[in-house]
Amino acid sequence: MKLLNNAIAGTLESSDIQIFIEPKEEAGIEIELKSNVEKQFGRQIRKVIKETLESLRVEGAKVTANDKGALDCTIKARVQAAAYRAAGIKEKFDWEVIE
């Protein structure tokens, strides 16, 4: 999936995560995480973000994530929504479960 624009998904409400994604020219996924549970769950949050983007075949992206205690399923959903928005995909979403 080729990212064309910056995009955002999610809120700053409790139990949610706000994902801001922007395209990068270089390959690789860069993740900046802000979370009050980063010491306990930061590694897992980064892993879910990275694996979700890799499953969508996103090759170059900078992600800024502001976590408020989101579960893995919420993180995946927000990352998917932001990626589809950034790629300009507005219909025919592939919502297959990502494992």
From TrEMBL:
- Pfam families reported for this sequence: ACP (PF06857)
Domain of life from the UniProt record: Bacteria
Where does it reside? Cytoplasm
Cell division found in the keyword field: no
Major site of localization recorded for this protein: cytoplasm
Q: Which NCBIfam families match?
A: citD, PRK13253.1
The name under which this protein is listed is: Citrate lyase acyl carrier protein
Q: Which organism is it from?
A: Clostridium rhizosphaerae
